[in-house]
């Protein structure tokens, strides 16, 4: 018997997740309070879609919450996701609930309220960054095809020539690209008009390991 999953909110996240779950053989229903999103979701073959506010008990009931094996709250509001999961758990006795949160400080509270799985994008990204491949500004060599690709995490110091410049103004060493910019809790995919600031952390990718050693000139700190 197919497991039943109820997705609430989420816009593009709901579409991607629904396609993935359907492909894996789950029975999926989606609730969304934006009519245009419901229209797009309804184009997915095999997906049941309901239009309305997923924090309303009657709508959860209409969506089959009593029979759901998993409810996943994907709205942009943490408080709504908590309400959805609480209702699903306590009123409809759903075995497993999953909530998306934007504020990592709320993660422990959600678990204390009985949510089975709490997913925070910021925390997830931070964990990836803190993996061994990025610890202590260490450079790794990854063999791909005909040669290695080197990845380095490099801070931009206060006195760096690159600080304050837009990406298109920076004369990057040959074979080096900036894969992402870490700024506080944000992870940005840089574009030509992205301005590099002191305190940023740059994730650099090079097809030639010797090229990364040149960044000392424009970051104000030598790569390790």
Lateral arrangement of strands in the main beta sheet: 3-2-1-4-5-6
CATH superfamily of the largest domain: NAD(P)-binding Rossmann-like Domain
| Percentage beta strand | 25-35%
The helix/strand class is alpha/beta
Strand and helix order: EHEHEHEHEHEHEEEEEHH
End-to-end separation in angstroms reads 54 Å
- Total DSSP helices: 8
The CATH topology of the largest domain is given as Rossmann fold
Basic shape: elongated
Summarize model confidence as the mean pLDDT: 80
Topology, number of strands:
11
Query: Rg from C-alpha positions?
Result: 22 Å
Count of domain modules: 2
If you had to describe this structure to a student in words, what would you say it looks like?
- Helices cover 27% and strands 27% of the residues.
- The protein is of the alpha/beta class and 224 residues long.
- It folds into two domains: 4-124, NAD(P)-binding Rossmann-like Domain (Rossmann fold, 3-Layer(aba) Sandwich); 130-219, Regulator of K+ conductance, C-terminal domain (Alpha-Beta Plaits).
- Strands 3-2-1-4-5-6 form a six-stranded parallel sheet, with helices on both faces. Strands 7-8-11-9-10 form a five-stranded antiparallel sheet.
- Strand 1 (4-8), helix 1 (12-23) and strand 2 (27-32) form a beta-alpha-beta unit.
- It is elongated, with a radius of gyration of 22 Å.
- Residues 128-147 have low confidence and may be disordered.
């Amino acid at each position: 018997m197919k497991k039943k999953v109820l997705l609430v909110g989420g816009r593009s996240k709901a579409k991607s997740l629904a396609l993935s779950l359907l492909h894996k053989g789950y029975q999926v229903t989606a609730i969304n309070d934006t009519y245009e999103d419901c229209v797009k979701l309804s184009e997915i073959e095999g997906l049941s879609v309901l239009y309305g506010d997923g924090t309303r008990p009657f709508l959860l009931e209409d969506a089959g919450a009593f029979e759901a094996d998993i409810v996943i709250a994907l709205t942009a509001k943490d408080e709504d996701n908590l309400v959805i999961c609480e209702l699903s758990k306590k009123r409809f006795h759903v075995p497993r609930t999953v909530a998306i949160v934007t504020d990592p400080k709320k993660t422990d509270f959600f678990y204390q309220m009985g949510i089975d799985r709490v997913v925070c994008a910021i925390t997830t990204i931070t964990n990836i960054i803190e993996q061994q491949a990025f610890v202590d500004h260490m450079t790794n060599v990854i063999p791909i095809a005909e040669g290695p690709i080197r990845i380095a995490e490099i801070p931009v110091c206060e006195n760096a020539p690159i600080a304050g410049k837009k990406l298109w103004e920076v004369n990057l060493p040959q074979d080096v690209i900036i894969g992402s910019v870490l700024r506080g809790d944000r992870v940005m995919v840089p574009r030509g008009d992205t301005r590099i600031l002191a305190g940023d952390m740059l994730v650099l990718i090079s097809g030639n390991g010797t090229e990364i050693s040149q960044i000392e000139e424009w970051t104000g700190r030598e790569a390790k």
